[in-house]
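Self-study notes.
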Amino acid sequence: MLVRHCDFESLSPMSIPPRLAAVDLGSNSFRLEIGLVDHGVFRRTEYLKETVRQGGGLDEERNLTPAAMQAGWDCLARFGERLADFPRARVRAVATQTLREARNRDVFLHRGSELLGHPIDVISGPEEARLIYQGVAHLLPQSDEKRLVVDIGGRSTELILGQRFQPEAVASFRVGSVAWSSRYFPQGQFTQQAFATAEIAAKAVLDEALSTYRPDTWEVAYGSSGTIGAVGDMLAAAGFTPGMLTFEGLDWLRERLLRAQSADKVRLEGLKDDRKPVIGGGLSILLALFDLLDIHSMQVAQGALRQGAMYDMLDRELPETDLRTSTVQSLVQSFAVDRGQANRVAAVACQLFAQALPDHQGTGARKLGWAAQLHEIGCRISHSDYHRHGAYILDNTDVAGFAQHELHRLGALVLGHRGKLRKIEADLGDTLFATQLLCLRLAVILCHARRDPDLQGLALSLEDSRFTLSARTGWAASYPQSAYLLREEMEAWQRTGRELSTLLP
């Protein structure tokens, strides 16, 4: 791991460690963390947090209210000012459960990304859990201990089993401090009945975790982020062991909340004002987990989702450390894709892409290669309309390393790689996407015989919105079927806002 990070460091001028930034759009708070990675070790230099409580801004139809959206946009505008001089490759912004649920999330994300100045990735629950584990694991002393990591967020709770840097089981449950507080502690009122009901409800959601996260599968429990950090601060201030949560401490805290009777009357050292409205829900979930999973003690971890996103950003810089590459190979294996054809199409597509867009070799080429590897993934379901099946699979799967919009983009390439272009016409205004798609479609045509094609003298160029595919003299006569399919492809693009001309003498 240290070598990989040092390799990334060498990209910076004068050997200065690169500044990285991560933005966490949580259901309770939005957080911005800026830091340096020096010799493989992350060091925070700045940290900003705003309590947006967006998780409480979903209406009955699961739409974010105008007020909730505006509060989020205002915060992102302030973060965006701080990130104005950061290159895109040095910032990762991730959104979690509230924006996974929100039906009008695209409206929020479009404006929010503009204000932030960087794209916002909505990540799945399992991907959130994986990144949390990476953040926790990288800030812990390395050992062979088997770990349980718990993160109680505003609208979801993540559980992870892992060892060293490797998560072995990840899960996300729709139970969180904001949701539970508004549902079981209305107006912030604390009663015995409210705590009992909230804990029972949490156990009902978390009960399925018992089979995977039973006590014999882990040795040390760690807690990450907001609720657990706040509880740890209060217990340490009260004289309990710093950085350690126990049943005794949680019972003491519940009694103190019951004695106060309401959130606005709680006076506890270590409890910040912005945490008071959601502490009842968070504590009830924590008590449920201790009881359900037979946790006797839990250490408060320093790492969290933000740090995990940063380390993941580092790994994405190099193909050999990009988790998404191995994830694609796992999908290829799971859906019994013809590897020979997948590799053949990927190689041809990437060669054409390098000719058309030589300045987009990095992630753009890598994503095209992944789409080519997966273009026949739907054949496992049915060869008829396999491109539609493939797009559906990618749009509805949770896999490690990918944000939801990245999977949708791969799905759009798979959907569009054959047939009429009308079905993805709205995406063709994006030059990068249009070029990736054309290269994929051309590669599929050139590899139609499922053997390595003759590419000598074949070249693809792009000028404005016009693509030109040229070939050496005699190529069309030598490969009449390929030439016929390429001319049909030229006609298909004439019906879009882009043009493909073929020079096949």
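Second protein, same conventions, sequence then structure:
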Amino acid sequence: MIYPTARAVILAAIGAPVALLIGLIAPGYWVVGGAWLALLLGLGLVDALLGPGRAAAAVFLEAPPTTGVGVSGNLVVRARFDAAPPPAAEVAIETNAKLSAVPALGVMPFENGEGIARFELTPTRRGVGEISTIWLRWRGVLGLVWKQLRETPRRQLLVTPDIHGVKATAIRLFSRDAQFGLKVQLETGEGSEFHALREVNGGADPRTIDWKQSARHGVLLGKEFRVERNHPVVFAIDTGRTMCEPLLGQPRLDRAINASLLLAYVCLKTGDMVAAYGFDARPGGFSGIVAGTAGFPRLQRHLAGLEYSDAETNFTLGLTQLGVALKRRSLVVVFTDFADATSAELMVENLTRLLRRHVVVFVAMRDEELEAIAAAEPVSAETVSRAVTAHALMRSRDLVIARLSRLGVRIVDAPAARIGAQLIATYLDLKRSDAV
């Protein structure tokens, strides 16, 4: 695309009143105005022909394939010309709503035939970001026309939760209970997988004493066990309307994904296997089983790809499909929310079916804003009305949680900021009790 610069427009604008004045004073010379415009047009055509054209330019984009929410990264645009390049060019980037590029218009100086423009790329929301269009424009030799090149790389970037923060938090929380870490799985006496015999010095559980081997060796020997590995841990994440509503400024779905990644890292560290499954009105994709910390990025990519949905969640279809997909006994961690008694009843009914074969953990995020409304001082009729409504919602939630607990579902009920820590503690408790 070639179009006039501000200089050409100003020159044309200056010529208009001059031509008008000449036409008024000397009507016979009215053609001067037309001649001025024709001259500018001719100079513009010459300017478009001089210097490098659009066909001589090549644009290259350098961007990371993956980035974390709120973690700024570098986006580099390079340009080369087959002929002598212009002194400088301007670059603009178009992205989708999940990315933000700063500055809006970058300046690209050319040295040794190559120009480089750098942008600060900041993900604004989890999902698949896209750099859709790059505009590169430069002035002609006379400065009368812009020569513009438009490239459509359609480069996609996976915007994930901040994985560095997840790993650091997981390691910090995990180190508080080291007896279920990698080191102690070969040392501790809790678990169900036999490891070795060791001489008992006293204070041992009589149930762990191997009387036959003690009689054979003439020494009191006890059995040592270690925590079993390779148990499947599956994260079932509701991506429907209620989970996409904000909780303390962040969608519940994003908080569920952060907590899932936190626990997944610990599970993979302890030798268990992990999978993720999303569902709303329809069953979502199943990530497949991931084992070992080397598989963690695969799980991260799958969870980052869970899209926000405004559909009502179909618990029957989603959880039934999950039950069919699980071929062996698993620990199923369910992240969901319910808006009314009907959806809560369907959720309880389908979780009960899962309990027949699997261990189920239900994650309930406390709505601190709702609790604050319920606890507000009744200074007006509106405040009282809001508090009564909040109390009713909280009571309904507590009744559903109590019912699930009686059925045998393990409940993680904590403020959103502490869900990850509580989830890890619950997982380690289940490992201790040999429930998984």
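Instructor comment on the second fold: The mean pLDDT is 84.
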